[in-house]
Write a structure and sequence with these properties.
Blueprint (H helix, E strand, L loop, with lengths): L2 E2 L2 H21 L5 E5 L5 H17 L2 E5 L7 H13 L5 E4 L9 H7 L11 H8 L8 H12 L8 E5 L6 H10 L3 E5 L6 H5 L4 E4 L17 E4 L3 E3 L2 H8 L3 H10 L2 E3 L12 E2 L7 H19 L3
Parallel strand pairs: 1-11, 2-3, 2-4, 5-6, 5-7, 7-8, 8-11
Antiparallel strand pairs: 9-10
Helix pairs in contact: 1-11, 2-11, 3-4, 6-7, 6-11
The protein binds guanine.
Length: 304
């Protein structure tokens, strides 16, 4: 039986450690602060940001939720970021993506002060990460490393194959795994003979954004599977393709008419040595690492 890597429990442990750090900082008169910028009314973004703000409260981190209208201009967003960059009570700036089409996302993310860039999206942090300097690393890949380390899964010398080359997950995950001395291969939509490469993976990270893309024949028996994908399915045919015979899923799908599947076909988990489930794997780590980055930013900015 493959081992399930419990992201919920690992995220909880990290949150407790962060809360302890916040208590220590409070003894020195420091309260880390996060500004969360949520533009417009994207339901998924609203849920994520609400959860981020709530977690701040639970850990003793100050948070300021700022909610510009959907028709906001790039210029007024730049003014907002400039203000947040200069605010002494704000250590971390989170601009929830995606932004409305009229907003120049890259220009905006580049305007965030790198020392407050708790998402790790700024090119300066990407550069620092790749140069092996202290950097705020993107939360999801940082969470992947935490799952592996805290589950005592060896990384050094292992072949880590990442499917997906996004700036937010694939590329930084490759850097972080490389810094842990993995042998790293990055695959993407143009990669030839993909299954031959994924079958070499001791650690397979799926970050493609396509439901159930990684199938059992693409997995080496005993491999560790890290599923970064969050794909909502609503069609019965899709449900049957992924979850036929799974009674628990069946019950919730019947009730809600929807369920979540990762980028790894659930049948592939049987081949694995260990895997992160969806939901309850990588997802919970993202917010925990955002909290950790906020506290880290608060300390770094004060030279602590
Ligand atoms: N949208 C989806 N995931 C994320 C994330 O990790 N950070 C931000 N800022 N926006 C997102």
């Amino acid at each position: 039986m493959a081992r399930i890597l419990d992201g919920v429990a690992i995220a909880k442990a990290i949150r407790e450690e962060v809360a302890e750090e916040v208590r220590e900082l409070s003894g020195r008169g420091v309260r880390p602060g996060l500004a969360a910028v949520l533009v417009g009314n994207v339901p998924a973004s609203e849920i994520y940001v609400r959860s981020k703000v709530q977690t701040c409260g639970e850990l003793g981190i100050f948070s300021d939720l700022i909610t510009p209208q959907a028709d906001v201009t790039t210029e007024s967003m730049l003014e907002l970021v400039d203000l947040l960059n200069r605010r002494e009570d704000i250590d971390g700036i989170l601009i929830q993506l995606p932004l409305p089409a009229q907003v120049d996302t890259k220009r905006l993310l580049d305007a965030v002060a790198p020392e407050k860039d708790v998402d790790g999206f700024h090119p300066v942090n990407a550069g620092r990460l790749q140069a092996g300097r202290p950097a705020l690393a993107p939360c999801t890949p940082a969470g992947v490393i935490q799952i592996l380390k805290r589950s005592q899964i060896p990384i050094a010398g292992q072949h880590a194959v990442i499917v997906g080359r996004s700036d937010i997950v694939g590329k930084p995950a490759a850097m972080l795994l490389l810094h842990e001395n993995a042998t790293v291969t990055i695959c993407h939509s143009k990669t030839r003979e993909l299954p031959e490469i994924t079958r070499q993976a001791d650690i397979l990270v799926a970050a493609i954004g396509r439901a159930g893309f990684i199938t059992p024949e693409m997995v080496k028996p005993g491999a560790t599977l890290i599923d970064v994908g969050i794909n909502r399915i609503t069609e019965r045919a899709d449900f049957d393709r992924f979850f036929k015979g799974d009674l628990k899923r069946e019950e919730s799908f019947a009730k809600r008419g929807t369920t979540i599947v990762g980028d790894i076909h659930p049948a592939a988990f049987k081949t694995a040595g260990a895997y992160t489930p969806v939901p309850g794997g990588v997802g919970p780590l993202t917010i925990a690492m955002l909290m950790a980055n906020t506290v880290r930013a608060a300390k770094m900015r004060r030279g602590l």
